[in-house]
Input
Amino acid sequence: MTDMLREIFKMQGELNRRIGVDTEAMPEEQQPEWVLNYTRAMSQELAELTDSVPWKWWAKYQKFDKQNARVEVVDMFHFLVSLAQVLGMSAEDVHRAYLEKNKVNFQRQDSGYSVKDENDSRHIGV
Output
């Protein structure tokens, strides 16, 4: 079976290069600009996702556009993968960090998560 996350990262890298953004060869001084670019793009896609849901309780004309909501999630994922690539993260890095962070989140729930501890995720290596 194909490693789906690795395939997504490969395809996104190809798309970015076609657009003219080579995240693998990006100089370090350009990285903050592209982190900002991709977070702004994700923010816009999140707003478009929000508009897919009838959030205006005063407007009776709205309908839930589930298909568009799904497309907006994928749009955000495109930018999220690009952001990871700018930060030098591979599919394997994201997977490994996700597994570690998921453990932390379960530990937080097991302990009641009554105290904020910024250091409980510092060990997650990427």
